[in-house]
Amino acid sequence: MPHVESEPIEAAESSGGLARLPFPPVTRSHILHCSYHYWHPLYRALTPKARLIPLTDPFISYLLADGIVLPPDQPRRSTLAGDDSGIETSDSEDDGEDEDPSADWLEIHNKIKDTIKELGGIVTPKLNWSAPKDATWIAVTNDLQCQTPNDIYLLLKSSDFITHDLEHAFDDTDLEPVDNLASEAIADHKKIPYYLVLRKYFNLNPSLEFRCFVRDRKLLCICQRDLNHFDFLFPMRDMLRSRIQSFFDDKLNDTFPDSNFVFDVYVPPPHERVWLIDINPWAIRTDPLLFSWLEILTMKDPAPLEEEVVRLSLRDESEVIGGAQHTASGRIEDCDVLEEENSDEGETSEIENISPLPEFRLVSRDDPEAYGFTAPQYSAHKLPRDVVDASQAGPGGMESFMRQWQDLLSKEFQQQQDESSGDDE
């Protein structure tokens, strides 16, 4: 749940002086309802395989502590040179007397090791709301794959998104209303029941992951999560939209406690099943991706499907029946029947003005705004390019970079000393 900056300028320009986005009050109970530990038990059968590990105060303090000190039993030992590298291992030769940082949360450490083994040896981590996607630059694999507990700790401690979960979960929220389940956590953010979520790693195709916006229990709009153009998505749009709409109607609409929320889904081949990946708050902190929040908040509701049925019933009965027979092998729920039956141009125009399903926005090849989407995500949370390149080159590359950096600092310090001595003379 990384923080997304607000859009006051866009709102003011687009609405003739609107000072701020017209969000309804964001309650602390809503934030907690979007926490993985809350919604996962409700929809466990709809999600990829995952395990939740409750976190203790000592472990949370470890995540928030400055510097990165890893427990001694990691298989891949850091080879970073210098005392100022910021990353240490408690089994290094120079500081073998250092305390094991996992001593105060050894049960969690062992549970993480067991869970990694249970889930096939590779997992991806997240906390209640956020995954450390902004810290993948520091991982050997340059993604969220973790094979050891120390892989997980390194990502979590390097992530601004994780820090936001731990220290700013209730920013810009109202206290009321609350429910019984959330009341204790709402009273004091330090009592939020934090969990480490370890999800079994699988090869997720990012082009088939979609963000869905729900307002007043209506699926308002959908868009890609990966902000690149994919040709193959356009012929599939109606089918995917119908799959997602049915998933929302059958699984989420009547079961999630809040009427406004954002959820992410994954529709892998053969595109017959929809997986729930995440649920996000209806708040400025959630990235609207291909939309703007002003656009979403002021968007008209999709017209109910019943309105279209009424209009079709005004046509000749035999024509409608014939159309239904003609599309029996197709996807009637995708409204293909409307496209095939509307041979009259004027009548087509009338019915096309009704949108029975949510807007589904994809990145077009010729969209001039799409060219900016290829910029690296989370760049504001990353280190300079030289550091990223060095980390991708493996331990040797990072060691060489640190040595060059220390040499540069030493030369600069020596130059300052020489200049200071010259001035004194």
TrEMBL record:
**Entries under InterPro entries matching the protein:** CDC123
Family per record: Belongs to the CDC123 family.
What GO cellular component is one of the record's annotations?
cytoplasm
- The residue ranges flagged as biased composition, category Acidic residues, are 90-102
- This chain belongs to the protein called Cell cycle control protein Cdc123
One Pfam family, short name: D123
Q: Positions of the region Disordered? A: 1-20, 74-102
